[in-house]
Amino acid sequence: MNTIQEEIKIASKEVSNSSKIKILTFEEKANKYLDFLLARRKEIDGLTEIIHNLNERLIIEINASKDLALEIKSDLQKLVNACQRFIAIIKRSDIYSGVKESTLNFTYEVRNLNEILYDIEIRYIKLPNNPEMKNIISKIQASK
Description:
Layout: H1 4-64, H2 66-92, H3 96-129, H4 131-142
Helix pairs in contact: 1-2, 1-3, 2-3
């Protein structure tokens, strides 16, 4: 049988060991969470680059071809909608504060994409069918 002093030492040692395990577990969880945030940031940054490059190409392509612009309009709208849903999911999630900057950069590129979509709508659909615009164009052409 152990003396009371030995029992106190054993108990102290067990508590000390248990405390170290909890600290390590917390640190591991924190590291895993930080690794997860870093991976999500990289994922969002990759999506931002994809949308940015698409925007650059779209500006050239839709200015060169009305037919192409009208052909891709529906797919662009679907892409914008999907991006907006993705942004909403991120903003409602627990990780938003950790990926806020990346999300804001992505949101900026999605807004640019949406603006390109709006430009297609105005340039190739609304303006050509606008009676006032048709009247102005016919007056300009008549004055030549």
